[in-house]
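Lecture 7 notes: from sequence to structure.
We start with the chain below.
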Amino acid sequence: MAASEADTPTNPEAFLRASDAERDEAARELGDRYAEGRLSQETFLRRMDEAFGAKDRGQLDGLFTDLPRQRASRSLRAMRDTLRATVRDGARDRKSVV
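Predicted structure tokens for the same chain:
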């Protein structure tokens, strides 16, 4: 059976191992979708088990293929670039003060 397009991870880093914080964020977001009435209790509980058992980001992404996401997932590269820009701007600001 071929995977559908909806099952294909859109996150290029989908096979990186998931962190505890990412699992917790997925669980919070599932709770929000349940509170909105988008999931039955049975589906919510099953997906919560899957979220806490997820080994990689692709497994977490797969929990939301039929749900709107609260916010777009940020890749490690995007977070790194933001951090570098913040550090660079902070260093520039300190030089102008001295």
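Points to note: The mean pLDDT is 81. The CA atoms of residues 11 and 74 lie 9 Å apart.
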